[in-house]
Amino acid sequence: MTTTHAHKPDERGQLADLVARAQAGDGNAREQLLQDYRPFYLRVASNCCRKYLVLGRDDKASIAMIAFNEAIDSFDSAGGASFLSFAEIVVKRRMVDYFRRQSRKSEEIPLSTFETEDNEDGILQRIESKEAHTVLQIQEETEQRREEIFRLDQLLSHYGIRFSELVKISPKHQDARDRALQVARTLVGDPELLAYLTRKKSLPLKELESRVKVSRKTLERQRKYIITLALILIGDFYHLQEYLNRPE
Q1: What is the mean pLDDT of residues 120-139?
Q2: What predicted TM-score, i.e. pTM, was given to this entire model?
Q3: Based on the domain organization, do 196 and 82 belong to the same domain?
């Protein structure tokens, strides 16, 4: 379930100001954020747990508050994304981490514990534990993919690209996508070309044209797509890289 958080422009400005002040060491601003947005981070955590959480009663509610506080410290407004979108991802990740730790603890129970007259119940518990662990792994991978897309979108904004554009600008044919990926690999494999990309935030078209079997016109047309591929290849984007290497 996705948490909605629509705010008026002036409210967004006030939120951005509070976050900036909290990051600068204003304790009152931080306390105000933790207080005013308590319903927000508790709702995100409650959705993850599929139960209503109360701060002071549920450990998971405390984890949500700590995660929101962590989001205040690590948020980078230069990326162009909203603070609440970022905070939602951080809270969800911390909830997944919590469930994963709990799942590991349950798997550490010795098998001898179940060698009693309640053996059948013990076996069922272990089966349920394994099933829960599998579900948590799937949830965690889904959250990791979402976080990678979020970080990539922030990075692309510095190059004048939005992640939402990619479906429209991606080549329609597989051979064209393969050629674009080869161009991106050539680009990231050359320190000078890569330095040009990261410094100028654009493709070194002239140099690339002389090194790849792709026309200047095609390079220009696929510019945003190739830049995106290059950033995925050099960044901490495990799941997106795995997708690029997946055979069609």
Answers
A1: 55
A2: 0.51
A3: no
